[in-house]
Amino acid sequence: MRDCHKHQCKRKCCEGNCSSCEQLCGKTLTCRNHKCSSRCHPGLCYPCPLTVDVHCTCGATKVTVPCGRQTATKPPRCLLPCRCPPDCHHPSRERHRCHAGRCPACKQICDKELKCRHRCPRFCHSAVLVKKQEKVERVGPWEPAPQVTVKLECLPCPPCRVPVPVTCLGQHETSLFACADARPHACERPCERRLACGNHRCRRTCHAMLAAPDATTAGENCQVCEAGCDRPRPEGCSHTCLLPCHQGSCPPCKQMLRVWCHCQMVHLYVECHSWAQAGGDEKRRLQSCKNQCPKMLSCGHRCTLQCHAGPCLDKLLCFEKAKLRCSCKRKKKDFPCSEVQTGVAKLECDEACAERIERQKQEKEKAYQLQAVKKEEEAKAALEEYERLMQGPKRKPRKRRGVEEEISFWNRYRVYIIVGGVLAAGTGYFFLTHGLS
After folding, report:
1. How far apart are alpha carbons 233 and 241 in whole angstroms?
2. Which of 52, 67, 187, 319 could form a disulfide with 168, with the two C-beta atoms 3.0–4.6 Å apart?
3. Is the full-model pTM beyond 0.90?
4. What single DSSP character describes residue 21?
C-alpha cells in the first residue's frame, strides 16, 4: 500500500518502500460543497480554501466567510430600510431596518370599511400566522400526533364597537350601544300610551308600535282595554254603564225602573234616564197610569180624574148623577152630585105621596090586626094541645070510695091562668116594638 493507505503500489516485487501516491485526494471537504484537490494523503483534508459572501435580505450589505460557514453565519446587520412588500392590505409596511426572516406583524390600524360604514379600529389582521392542526382521530397512542402547520391567513374584522344611540321600541329612552349590538330592544318600562278609550294606558312592556298616529297614542298591537266604564253616573242613576270603557259621556241609561202609579194599583216601567232627569211635574206625569182614579169621594162617587198625585177632587165639584127621592121615597129624580151635597136640589112630596102614605098606614094596621088574630089562634091551638097532653089518655072512671075531696080554684084553673098571662105579655111586647108609623 502507498502512504495514503488507500491506493496499492503497482510495482512488482516491491519491498515496502513504495513511492508517494500521486493521485488526487477527491474527498469531500467539510464545507460539503467542494472536494479536496491535493494529492492523496492520509489523515484529514485541509479546510476549504474558498470563501463565500453572506448578504443581508435586501442584498446591499455582505460579509465574506469561509466556505461551509455561510449557514451558521448570521446575515450582516444592514442599516438600510426593509424593502419586503407588505403581506396585508396596506400599501406599505411600517418603516423598519432590513432584517433576516419574516417581517414583524403589521401594527397599523386595519381601517377597513365595515358594513355599518364605520372603520375597523383594531390592529391589522389581514396577514396573521395561524396554527392549523389536522382533525384526525387517533386510534391509539402509538399513532403519530396530528401535524401542526402554520399558515398566513386574513382574519375577519371583529364586530364594530363604536357606540351609537339606539331608541327603545316604545320610544321611551335613547341609550348608547355598540354598533354590532345596536338593534331594536325593549327597555322593560310599561308602554304607557293612551288607549282608544282615552281613560287608561297600555300596561304592556315596551314594544314596537303598529300604525300609531303619534308618540302618545296606542297602536294596533297595544293592549286592548277590557275594563268596564267607570265614569261617574248622573245623579239619581244607580246603574252601571253597559258599554266597555269609552271616550266621551255615557249614553242615556236605558234600564227600566219599576214604580207604582199614584193609585198604587199598577206597576209602571220608566227608563232610568227619563226618571233621573225629570222634575217634580214630569215625575208626576210619568207616574200616572192614565187610568181613572179608583178612589171614592166622600159623596160615594168615584174620582173622575186620571191617576194623579195628591188629594182627589172636592165632593162639591162632583158632577156625577145622583138620585134624589122625596121624603116618602115615592118620587125620584137625577141631579148633579154637587147640587145634592150643597142642598140646592130638593124634591117635595105631592098629593099622590100623601094618599100613598095614608093607604100604607091603613094596610099596616090591617096587617097588624090579622097578625094578632093569627097569633091568638095559634096560642089557643097550642093551649089545647098542651091540655090534651097534660090530661093523658082517656080512662074509664073509677068508683070512688069514701068522701070526695074538694078541689081548690087554683088547682082547677092554673093552666088557663098561666097560658093567658103568657099570651098577654107577648101581645103587649109586639105592639110596643112595632107601633103604627
Report:
1. 8
2. 187
3. no
4. P
